[in-house]
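Lab channel / #folding
Pinned by the channel admin:
"Please post every new chain as: sequence first, then the structure tokens as a reply. Keep commentary short and put observations after the output so the thread stays searchable."

First post following the new format, from NK:
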Amino acid sequence: MTGELGLLALCFALALSLVMAAAGLLGTRAQADAARRVATSSALGFLVFTLLAFGVLTYAFVVSDFSVALVASHSHTLKPLVYKISGVWGNHEGSMLLWVLVLALYAGVVAILGRGGARLTSGALGIQGLLAAAFLLFILFTSNPFLRLDPAPFEGAGLMPLLQDPGLAMHPPMLYAGYVGLSAAFSYAAAALMVGDAAIINNWARAARPFMLMAWIALTSGIALGSWWAYYELGWGGFWGWDPVENASLMPWLIATALLHSALATEKSGAFRTWTLLLAIAGFSLSLIGTFLVRSGVLSSVHAFASDPTRGFFIMVLIALAIGGALALFAWRAPSLQGGAAFEPASRETALLLNNVFLLAACACVFAGTLYPLILDAMNGTKITVGPPYYVLTFAPIFFALLLLVPFGPRLGWKRGDLKAVWRSLYPALGLAGIAAVAVLAIVSPRTIAATGAFAVAGWLIGASILDLRKRKGARASAFAAALAHAGLGVTLLGVAGTTAWRSEAIAVVGPGQTMTVGPYTLRFDGVTREKGPNFIADRAHVAVMDGGRVSAMLQPEHRFYPAEGQDMTDTAIRTTGLRDLYLALGDERDDGRFALRAYVSPLAPLIWLGGLMMSLGGMLSLWGRLRAPSAEPAAVAQAAE
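Reply from TO:
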């Protein structure tokens, strides 16, 4: 009965999402309080039944119920429990159910918080209901996770070995929390346009800002987790390959970053009202486009696992309706939208405006590099790859210019600021930037202009953030949020620059007792043993790290074979000092009993993910301060909501 119970729960969830959509949209026009109550109850019921459906599917994976086709295709009795659970979303059907579950959680939070008044909340729930209904119809008609097999197989096919990893187990849920979090901001923006009241249109961003922060935090954490997984799991020594699916998560992050800053200006001074509405629409639109890229089968990637054109067409229709409907709504309201508040050229608004321009330009570069090969292939069958050189020439200069601008924003006043005074206050940060550049030129080899510039910019960002932290000494924790996030950007830049400019690599075919050298390390290969894991067989290498003739550490990279899936997998070994990684990957066995061994030394690599953690913590501090602050809805909004 597992499959039938799950399918029934999805049908109830669909019915309640339609009720939520109807009541919510009606509430934007009349009887807002009554409609909001109905929409709120429907949203909570939708959440309950979606949780039930997801719980049923999870139970089927945990108990290895192979009468459910999805379990038979993506699980195995020998899999560890954690990978049985992550197998729920390690496939197309389960991941789409996870998407709807996250949407249901956000809808429940919107219903419970009720920010922005009855009409705005009703409208937001109505839009959430429409999105939920569309995705549930997609699941029920093209991606049913509860299809039965009769007779049920005795054993399952297993989960792709690449997905049997703790980092990747958490990576999709975090990204979905970001993607779907942008749907909440999108829903508030669309609801404000539907209501049409000037006070609500001018102040909807206040109600939506916590959801923008949740989405940004989740995207930042999800991208960092994916980068870390690519680094230690794939065995190529890198952390970002400009893969189209990686880009699909980066683009919403860039827009979400612009949206956060634009919404802050709208809330504080009334500027960028139109910007904020359009960015909310663009952010969720890019999330849908990312979903299409991953789920449609139009590209080949280690991240993509759907290849059904019918599903891709359905998602294309959903994208067209969501983006087209939102833009049509914006065009309808455009003549009545009030202009933003005026501000001087030397002001925080100007800094944020430039911030948004640079972020949009960077996103446009990534968008073009991602979609151009697909468009060219569709038009004439020409297959090309857009790789790192393109992004180095286009994305990197724009992002560097943005980083140079970042320290000015927090110091300039709203509407009018003193640029000279701000510049003087940043002299210590400029000094730190100079010291960083000189240190690179004096100490590190080889010397490159790019690495020197990157260290100078990182010193500029970190120095300015330290000044901010000192200035806010004694303030509430949330006051440190922006400084911590900006410092995190600088720390990540240090890691990227160090790993890119000064990484050492060595590849050798070695037998027992033989040595190889990589960077400052001498490695002695002590042979390979055959080990049996819970659901794999591994060739485990034993490599001694030598220091002055003595063994300072032992590393054990593995080459694994998963019998159920019939696939090989690399399991790397990494020794870190906190500022430098020694990274080993074991290759294939050669005819003479020797093994290929690939070694990297990656200076400052851990700083990449430390910076990501700092950015996420900065976002969490900001969200904590926002949720702890008492609701301060403007009087005009409260009146318009009645």
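NK: Residues 1-164 form a domain with the Four Helix Bundle (Hemerythrin (Met), subunit A) fold (CATH 1.20.120).
TO: also worth noting, The chain has three domains: 1-164, 165-328+345-407, 504-603.
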